[in-house]
Structure formats: structure tokens, C-alpha cells
Amino acid sequence: MHFATWLLCFFSSSLFALGSSAVITWHNTSPTAPHVEAVPEWIHHGIDKTVSALGELPNNVIPVSVYYMKHAKEPVPWGEILRGEPDSIKLYIDEHASLSALTADWTLYHELAHLYHPRLDNHDSWLAEGLATYLQNVIMLKGDIISNRDFVERIKAGLERGELATKQFAGQLSQISNNMWQLKAYQRVYWSGVAFFIEAELELQSKCADCNMVKLLARYQTCCRDNKTINVSQSATVFLSYFDMLAENNMFMPLYKRYKSRRDFPYISENQIIKILNRYTKQVAVR
Ligand SMILES: [Zn+2]
Predict the structure, then answer these.
(1) For residue 134, how far is its CA from the centre of ligand 1 (angstroms)?
(2) H/E/C letters for each residue in the chain?
(3) CA 20 to 30 Å from 175, out of 3, 142, 204, 286?
């Protein structure tokens, strides 16, 4: 028996203006009455916030598959990106989640952020997950979904979890990344990657006053993204070499080489997180 599938397409004028739309497909079930409108509104809103923060998405149409999860402990307990032509997103949601709870959850922003980079080799998953986790916080900050203080606290708390997990999962970061799923070493992998992008962002700032990761990533989409290799994972060295080229600096590759073999967790101070905050917000509200 095939799963009942309920298909809904929606297009918004603002999404059209920015060249992005979503096609939502329900699996396992049809949506409950409140979710008929709430889920498309949530996904629409998420795409809108993401595009406003990061620039146009690489694909015009984003297929999104939605599944219900019973007895979920979070509004969106699971999300993943499926690489293909085009890349698509799979989301598991709590069948009772309200629109405001869905909107406040980070998972959708995280998966949308993954669309801005190619599939990377497993041993480089710390870079892919670090970038998506870093950008999800930038999207939520710029979209007024979290406050300035939330931004700093979330990153601080994540880095603390990453540091704790590094004691549990010892070894080189690239090896732990390669076995992340078997080990369940998510916190070390994700947050080591976030630390990488905080360091990269600050170094970028010191070398190029008008550069930031978001601007580089937007330029990468148009100049350098190779869509022919969409189903093939790419080495991070190829991916990052474009950033060095765009920034006209040789900083990403040396930082990458230092991180991939590191056994410790990087130290990032609160002051550094506040500098990142100030990079993405005009108001200096956190001291
Ligand atoms: Zn991810």
C-alpha cells in the first residue's frame, strides 16, 4: 500500500520576486485542519527569512516532504536534505505543533542553509554542519526570530556542548566526522564547524572590511557553484578554494587544514561571538 499523499503547491509574490518557491508534499497522512494553512505558511516564512538573510536560493523550486511524528519532544524533531536535481528537504513535525512553535524551531532554517553549499565528503561533514548551524543562527537573528541576546547565548551553549562532546569522542575531527552517525558525535562535529566559521568570519573582517561569510556565499552561488556535480560529494578543499579566491586571501585553506586534524575543541570567547553578532546586526545591544 502506498502512503496517501496530499500535494500542495504554493507560490507567493515575494518568493516569485526572489525566484524561489516550494512544493510541499505530505507523506503518511493528510494534514490536520490547522496544518493545512499553518505548514505552508511556516515553510513560506522560512524561505522568505532565509532568502532575505542569505540571498537567493540556488534552485527556483524546493521540494519539501513533510511527515508527522507522534509523541515528538520538539516541534520539528528531525530534518534532512536530500541531494538531487534539485536538492530537496525532508521534515518530520509534531502533529500538534502550532505555527508559532514551528516558526521558532531552528530545523527548517538549518536545512535551508544546507542548500547554499554542495554535498561535501563525509570526513568534511564538520564543515557542512558547521556552516548550516552557523547560518541558521544568522537567519534567525536577521529575521527577528531570535534576539541579539538569544544569538549569543545559543552559540555559547552550543560551543559548550561541543567542548563536552570532544572529551567523549576523542580523535581527529575529520575521523570523528566520518563516523558521526555511528558514534552520534553530532555536538562535537557541528560545533567545531561553527567555531571554524566564527574564526573565519573574524579573520575575514580583519582582512576585508566589506566582506562577510554571507556575502562570499552569495557570490559563490553565481560565480563558482558547479551544478554538474550535484550528486557527487565534493572535497572541502575545492569548496573552500573558491572562498579564498573570492576573498582574495589565503585564509580558508590554512584554517581548514588546522581544523580537520585537531583533537581539541577550539576556544571561542564571548567577545568573539559578540563581534559576529555586530557583523550581522546594526544595533549593538549586547555588552
Ligand atoms: Zn545539517
Answers:
(1) 10
(2) CCCCCEEEEECCHHHHHHCCEEEEEECCCCCCHHHHHHHHHHHHHHHHHHHHHHCCCCCCEEEEEEEEECCCCCCCCEEEEECCCCCEEEEEEECCCCHHHHHHCCHHHHHHHHCCCCCECHHHHHHHHHHHHHHHHHHHHHCCCCCHHHHHHHHHHHHHHHHHHHHHCCCCHHHHHHCHHHHCCHHHHHHHHHHHHHHHHHHHHHHCCCCCHHHHHHHHHHHCCCHHHCCCCECHHHHHHHHHHHHCCCCHHHHHHHHHCCCCCCCCCHHHHHHHHHHHCCCCCCC
(3) 204
The total of structural domains in the chain comes to: 2
Claim: this prediction has a pTM higher than 0.70: yes
What percent of the chain has pLDDT above 70?
89
User: Considering 94, 114, 134, which residue would you say is the last residue of a domain?
Assistant: 114
Q: What residues make up the domain containing 67? A: 3-114
How many angstroms separate the alpha carbon of residue 115 from the centre of ligand 1?
Answer: 10
Are both 273 and 182 inside the same structural domain?
A: yes
Residue 146 Cα, ligand 1 centroid: separation in angstroms? Answer: 19
29 pLDDT band, cuts 50/70/90, is confident
Are residues 128 and 110 part of one domain? no
C-alpha 89 – ligand 1 centre gap (Å) = 11
Q: How far is the CA of 283 from the centre of ligand 1 (A)?
A: 29
Mean pLDDT of 157-178: 97
Q: In this structure, are 35 and 74 located in the same domain?
A: yes
